[in-house]
């Protein structure tokens, strides 16, 4: 075997979210979430990323409509009932870790319930036990783009400080219940998306408010406080807990070597990526964010003790998703927009793209890992990485996906080189090891998985699981600890 660049004990695995996989949207007491009211749009523009603006009228309409074709995330891939079968397939690939999220709206369907929903916890008990049975570390995301509607109805989302206490109470239930079983946690999925996807992450939907951006950053401040308090609580309950921050890192390059473009790149990197990680890992609001707030006339209400909590209880590791990079320029007139994770970016003429317009930049992953490790000196965990593709089932029922293998091979190769550079890494949970509903478009045909799920965009199909060629490739990657790619 070729000598591996990956350390012994490196955690190979995959990641799913409850709101895209679970289904069972109205079973065992669960209440509605933002994903449950997001409609499928068959005419989605593949080349531009548009965030659906969830308003109160849409929410009220969805409450009175039990449809699961129009609202695909309500059905997911029925992981709520197939988790044993699916986790067994992950174990067959050799997963060392499985990242999954717990749905807040299952555990506290009323938002401020006096006690958690036991049926929900029993379900997650089984998911975690299934992971442990197969020798996998369960990695739990506490909040993953699925703000409960009830928290919007009752409190107005994260703009209301009341959510800090509700979230910490929710965390306490999880930390105590899974003490000794779950070691790795993520407080908020891709927390930097709060200012781009305010409904999914913050439950703030007052788009026309004159201080809307201020509302988003106020809600984000409440999440920073909640993350710090959850981190303190997790360490008190079990000192072995590892609590991670997480951003969707948009690696940024200057369009040219003009100093003005480099300066714009620096500013974009600061407010799209570093600001969030600086607060969660360095424990303070950075100088450039304070300047941004001043220039935008944003005033945050910060209570006594907030900054001390943020400073004292920082994350244990840096979690990040990496899908695509972007370019920055002081003059964007000549640049072309293309789609990307959560929001559109300016197209880099030197990079290829997938069928949804997302540009493919493996070398950017190595660059980013070095950048992040140099800045925070904490181990890095790649929590999401992949690309959506159209898959075709052959007459004999097989699925050949060399394009997926090639994408992942190139990115894993660059991870290994970053480790050789000296970057400390914990593991890699590839996004979507089994096909599920797309977060951005609510379609099924945008597939990420090693495992094909027989379901189309409208919910038709047998739901049969089929191993793709990439399934066996990743199985060998794990078996050889990344030595054979």
TrEMBL record:
Gene source species: Paenibacillus silagei
Top-tier EC class: hydrolase
Record-stated family: Belongs to the glycosyl hydrolase 1 family.
EC number: 3.2.1.86
Domain of life: Bacteria
Gene3D superfamilies, alphabetized: Glycosidases
A Pfam cross-reference name: Glyco_hydro_1
Name of the molecule in the record: 6-phospho-beta-glucosidase
Molecular function per GO: 6-phospho-beta-glucosidase activity
Key words of the record: Glycosidase, Hydrolase
Keyword Cell cycle: no
UniProt KW Hydrolase keyword: yes
């Amino acid at each position: 075997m070729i000598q591996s660049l990956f350390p012994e004990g490196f955690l190979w695995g995959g990641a799913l979210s409850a709101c895209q996989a679970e289904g069972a949207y109205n079973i065992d007491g669960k209440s509605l979430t933002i994903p449950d009211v997001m409609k499928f749009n068959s005419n989605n523009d593949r080349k531009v990323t548009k965030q659906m603006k969830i308003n109160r009228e849409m929410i009220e309409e969805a409450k009175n409509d039990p449809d699961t074709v129009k609202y695909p995330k309500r059905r997911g891939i029925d992981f709520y009932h197939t988790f044993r079968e699916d986790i067994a397939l992950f174990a067959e690939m050799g997963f060392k870790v499985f990242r999954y999220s717990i749905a807040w709206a299952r555990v506290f369907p009323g938002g401020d319930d006096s006690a958690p929903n036991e049926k929900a916890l029993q379900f997650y008990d089984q998911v975690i036990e299934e992971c442990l049975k197969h020798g996998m570390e369960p990695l739990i995301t506490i909040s993953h783009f699925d703000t409960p509607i009830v928290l919007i109805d009752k409190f107005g989302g994260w703009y209301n400080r009341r959510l800090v206490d509700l979230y910490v109470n929710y965390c306490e239930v999880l930390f105590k219940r899974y003490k000794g079983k779950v070691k790795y946690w993520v407080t908020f999925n891709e927390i930097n998306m709060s200012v781009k996807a305010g409904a999914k992450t913050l439950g703030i939907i007052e788009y026309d408010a004159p201080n809307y951006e201020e509302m988003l950053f106020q809600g984000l401040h409440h999440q920073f406080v909640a993350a710090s308090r959850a981190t303190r609580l997790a360490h008190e309950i079990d000192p072995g807990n590892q609590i991670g921050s997480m951003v969707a890192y948009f690696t940024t390059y200057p369009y040219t070597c003009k100093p003005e473009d480099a300066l714009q790149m620096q500013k974009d990197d600061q407010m799209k990526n570093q600001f969030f990680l600086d607060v969660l890992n360095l424990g303070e609001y950075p100088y450039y964010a304070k300047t941004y707030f001043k220039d935008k006339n944003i005033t945050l209400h910060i209570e006594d003790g907030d900054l001390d909590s943020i400073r004292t209880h920082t994350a244990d590791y840096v979690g990040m998703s990496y899908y695509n990079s972007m370019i920055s320029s002081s003059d964007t007139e000549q640049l072309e927009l293309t789609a990307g994770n959560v929001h559109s970016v300016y197209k880099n003429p030197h990079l290829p793209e997938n069928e949804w317009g997302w540009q493919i930049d493996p070398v950017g992953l190595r660059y980013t890992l070095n950048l992040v490790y140099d800045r925070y000196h904490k181990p890095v965990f790649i929590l999401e990485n992949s690309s959506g593709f159209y898959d075709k089932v052959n007459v004999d029922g097989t699925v050949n996906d060399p394009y997926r293998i090639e994408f992942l091979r190139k990115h894993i190769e660059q991870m290994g080189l970053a480790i050789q550079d000296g970057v400390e890494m914990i593991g890699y949970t590839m996004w979507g090891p089994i096909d599920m509903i797309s977060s951005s478009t609510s379609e099924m045909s945008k597939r990420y998985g090693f495992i094909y799920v027989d379901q189309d965009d409208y919910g038709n199909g047998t739901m049969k699981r089929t191993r793709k060629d990439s399934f066996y490739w990743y199985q060998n990657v794990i078996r050889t600890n990344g030595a054979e790619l």
